[in-house]
Write a structure and sequence with these properties.
With about 575 residues, the chain is of the alpha/beta class. The chain folds into 2 domains: about 5-195 and about 375-420, Periplasmic binding protein-like II (D-Maltodextrin-Binding Protein, domain 2); about 200-375 and about 520-580, D-Maltodextrin-Binding Protein, domain 2 (3-Layer(aba) Sandwich). Helices cover about 40% and strands about 10% of the residues. The protein has 24 helices and 15 strands. The chain has helices at about 5-15, 40-45, 50-60, 95-100, 115-125, 140-145, 155-160, 165-170, 175-180, 205-210, 220-230, 265-270, 295-310, 325, 340-345, 390-410, 420, 435-445, 460-470, 495, 500-505, 510-515, 530-550, 560-580; strands at about 70-75, 105-110, 135, 180, 185, 190, 200-205, 245, 280, 285-290, 330-335, 355-360, 370-375, 375-385, 515-520. The strands form 6 sheets. A 4-stranded mixed β-sheet has the order 8-11-7-12. Helix 7 (about 155-160) crosses helix 16 (about 390-410), helix 18 packs across helix 19 (about 460-470) and helix 23 runs antiparallel to helix 24 (about 560-580). Residues about 1-50 have low confidence and may be disordered. Pfam families: SBP_bac_1 (PF01547).
C-alpha cells in the first residue's frame, strides 16, 4: 500500500478515534487516576529539578520515578476472564505493584476481545494512532516500522533493560538481531523463544532397531531400509503384519511448517536441502520461495516413491490423529520437535515401554542435517516514537521478569494471574534455554555441577528439573533409553516431570550435541500486503499439489505447473515484497 493512500484512508479513522492518543502528544483527561501530560499537576512536576530526578530514576532498571509517569497502552482480554472480587484489568494488584515500585500509572486507551485484536490494532496503525506501547506480531511490528511510527529503543534498552532481559536478547544472536534491528538500531523488544522448538528431527523406536539388529538410519537410503524392516520383520513380535514405517501428518496437519511441525515430513524435505514455506536467498542473491525450488520437486519425487512402497503411512493426510498408531505401538518412525516427549507421555505407562529416541537424521548427501528454524521471537513489545518515557516500558518488563515467580508463589492476583492482569504481559525465554538445560542436567548427573552453584534467575524450570532427574534417572546416567528411567517407584513424577525430562535429554540431544546441524532461517516470517489477499489461495494450491504428487494422483511434472500458477496468482509480487521487507 502506498504511503499517500494510507494517509488519506487514515484521516477518516483519526476523526473516529479521537480519544486514542499517542504518548508524545496532548492527552485528553480520561477521568483516570493517571494525570494527563498537559494537566496542571504534570506542569508543576516538570520543573528542572523533578526532570533531573526522573531522569536519574530512568537509568535504573528498577528505579522509582519521583514524579508519576503515565503510560497509555492497549491490550486484548478474554471477556470471560475472572478477576478477584472488586478487581478488573484496570484496577488490580499488579497495577498497584507497578505504582508502588516504579510510580508508573497505566491507562488503557482500549481493550478488545482476542477475536477483534488484529482488526483493532491494524486500525490504530493505519490511522497513525498507536498507544505508548503494545504487544504485536511480526507483521504488525513491520507495518509500524514501515510507517515510521516506532521509537529507536537502543538507548532505552542499553540504559534501562535489566541484566535478565539483556541476557535473553543476547541469547538470540545474529538471527534475533536481524529480526528486530535496523542499521544497528533496536526497533522492538522481542519476546524470545527457545530455538529448539522450531527444529524437527527423527524420532525412532530404538527397541525395534535393537531387536532387528539395525542402526539408526543416517541418510535417506538407510531410512528406506529401516522403514521397510519395520513393516516386514514383525518388530513388535506379535506374529502379525500390522506395523508401519513412517507416520505422517493427519488431515489437519501439514507436510511442512515454519515452526515445530509435529508429524510433518520436514526432515525428508531438508534431506534434499528443500525448505517449503521459507523465504531464502539463492546463489545470485535473489529472494526465492522454498516451495517452488527444484530441490522441493526432488523431495516430492522421493516421497512419492516411498509412499508407493508403503514406507510412509498410507493414511497420510487422512488420519484423524497421527498420535494413535504411536500409542498403539504400531509405528516405528515419525518427525517432531524437542517437546515431543510431552506428546507421547502416555507411552511411558505402557509395558513394555517403547523406547523412542531422537536423531538429527536423515542427513543430506553432504553429511549435514539441515534444520529449518522458527523465528527466534514471534511477539514484540513496540514503543511509540513520540513516547516521552520509553524507558518506562522497559521497566514494566524488568519488573515482570524479576518478580513474577514471587507473585505466583504468594498468590498475588491469583485470578486471573499475571497473564490477565499485568500490562504488556508476554513470555520471555533464552533462545538457547533447552540446550543450556541439557548441558547443566548432564553435568549435574555426573557430579560436575552442584544445584547450589546454578543461577536459576534466567532458568525458571531448571531447579525443578534438577531435583526430578536425580529421582527418576537410573544407571547408567549417560544413557537415556527409557529402560534407564525409574518408571515404577516415582509416583507423580512420571506424569509431571518425566515428559519434560525426556523432551530435554532425548529430544534436544541432537541440537545440543550434534556438530553436523546447519540451521536455516527464513528471510522473513511475517505477512506482506499481497499475502493478506492472496496467501490463502496460494497455500491451498501448494498443499493440494504436494499431496497429490506424494499420494500418486498427480505426476511429478505437475510441480512445474504449480510453480507457474503460483507466480501468476500473486507469488511473484509477494517475492518482491518479501525482498523489500527483509532488507
Amino acid at each position: 500500500m502506498k504511503k499517500r493512500k494510507w494517509l488519506l484512508s487514515g484521516l477518516i479513522t483519526v476523526m473516529l478515534m479521537a480519544t486514542l492518543t499517542a504518548c508524545g502528544g496532548d492527552k485528553a483527561d480520561s477521568g483516570s487516576n493517571g494525570a494527563s501530560n498537559n494537566t496542571a499537576g504534570n506542569t508543576a512536576a516538570n520543573t528542572a529539578d523533578s526532570k533531573d530526578t526522573n531522569s536519574s530514576a530512568a537509568l535504573d532498571p528498577f528505579g522509582r520515578y519521583e514524579e508519576p509517569v503515565t503510560l497509555h497502552l492497549v491490550r486484548s482480554l478474554d471477556p470471560n476472564l475472572k478477576f478477584d472480587e472488586g478487581k478488573s484489568v484496570e484496577d488490580n494488584e499488579f497495577l498497584d505493584e507497578i505504582k508502588k515500585q516504579l510510580n508508573i500509572e497505566i491507562v488503557y486507551d482500549w481493550i478488545s476481545a482476542p477475536a477483534d485484536w488484529d482488526q483493532k490494532i491494524s486500525l490504530a496503525i493505519s490511522s497513525n494512532n498507536i498507544p505508548d506501547a503494545a504487544i504485536v506480531n511480526l507483521t504488525q511490528f513491520k507495518s509500524m516500522q514501515k510507517f515510521n511510527q516506532l521509537a529507536d529503543s537502543t538507548d532505552a534498552f542499553n540504559s534501562t533493560a535489566s541484566d535478565m532481559l539483556k541476557s535473553f536478547y543476547e541469547s538470540g544472536g545474529d538471527a534475533l538481531k536481524q529480526l528486530v534491528e535496523t542499521d544497528g538500531k533496536i526497533m522492538a523488544i522481542p519476546a524470545t523463544v527457545p530455538k529448539a522448538s522450531g527444529m524437527s528431527q527423527m524420532w525412532i523406536r530404538q527397541d525395534w532397531l535393537d531387536k532387528l539388529g539395525l542402526e539408526a538410519p543416517k541418510n535417506l537410503e538407510e531410512l528406506k531400509k529401516v522403514a521397510r524392516a519395520f513393516i516386514e520383520q514383525d518388530p513388535d513380535g506379535n506374529g502379525k503384519n500390522d506395523t508401519m514405517g513412517i507416520v505422517g501428518p493427519s488431515k489437519s496437519g501439514g507436510l511442512s511448517g515454519t515452526d515445530g511441525n509435529l508429524y510433518g515430513l520436514d526432515p525428508l524435505f531438508a534431506a534434499h536441502k528443500s525448505f517449503p514455506l521459507y523465504w531464502l536467498e539463492n546463489e545470485q542473491g535473489e529472494v526465492v520461495y522454498g516451495s517452488t525450488q527444484p530441490e522441493t520437486k526432488q523431495a516430492l519425487q522421493t516421497m512419492a516413491e516411498m509412499y508407493k512402497e508403503g514406507l510412509i503411512d498410507k493414511e497420510l493426510l487422512v488420519r484423524d490423529d497421527s498420535l494413535q498408531p504411536i500409542l498403539d505401538g504400531k509405528a516405528g518412525i515419525f518427525f517432531g520437535p524437542w517437546w515431543t516427549g510431552y506428546t507421547i507421555a502416555d507411552a511411558y505407562k505402557k509395558d513394555p515401554t517403547p523406547d523412542w529416541q531422537a536423531y538429527a537424521y536423515p542427513q543430506a548427501d553432504d553429511g549435514n542435517y539441515y534444520a529449518h528454524m522458527a523465528a527466534p521471537a514471534n511477539t514484540f513489545v513496540v514503543v511509540n516514537k513520540d513516547c516521552k518515557n520509553p524507558e518506562a516500558v522497559l521497566k514494566l518488563i524488568n519488573l515482570l521478569l524479576r518478580d513474577e515467580a514471587k507473585w505466583v508463589e504468594t498468590g498475588l492476583g491469583k485470578n486471573p494471574g499475571t497473564s490477565g492482569g499485568y500490562p504488556l504481559f508476554t513470555v520471555f525465554d533464552n533462545v538457547d534455554e533447552i540446550e543450556v538445560s541439557y548441558d547443566i542436567l548432564n553435568k549435574y548427573l555426573k557430579g560436575e555441577v552442584e544445584i547450589d552453584s546454578v543461577d536459576f534467575s534466567t532458568h525458571k524450570l531448571l531447579k525443578d528439573d534438577m531435583n526430578a532427574i536425580k529421582k527418576l534417572k537410573k544407571e547408567p546416567l549417560d544413557d537415556f533409553s527409557i529402560t534407564n528411567w525409574d518408571l515404577k517407584d516415582s509416583g507423580d513424577l512420571i506424569t509431571t516431570n518425566l515428559p519434560r525430562l525426556v523432551s530435554i535429554m532425548v529430544g534436544d540431544r541432537p541440537l545440543a550435541t550434534d556438530q553436523n546441524i546447519k540451521e536455516v532461517y527464513s528471510l522473513y516470517y511475517g505477512q506482506t500486503d499481497t499475502m493478506s489477499s492472496r496467501w490463502a489461495n496460494l497455500q491451498k494450491l501448494e498443499k493440494e499439489t504436494f499431496a497429490k504428487i506424494i499420494m500418486g494422483s498427480a505426476p511429478i511434472d505437475s510441480f512445474d505447473e504449480f510453480v507457474t500458477k503460483w507466480n501468476k496468482q500473486g507469488g511473484e509480487k509477494i517475492l518482491g515484497e518479501v525482498a523489500e521487507m527483509s532488507k
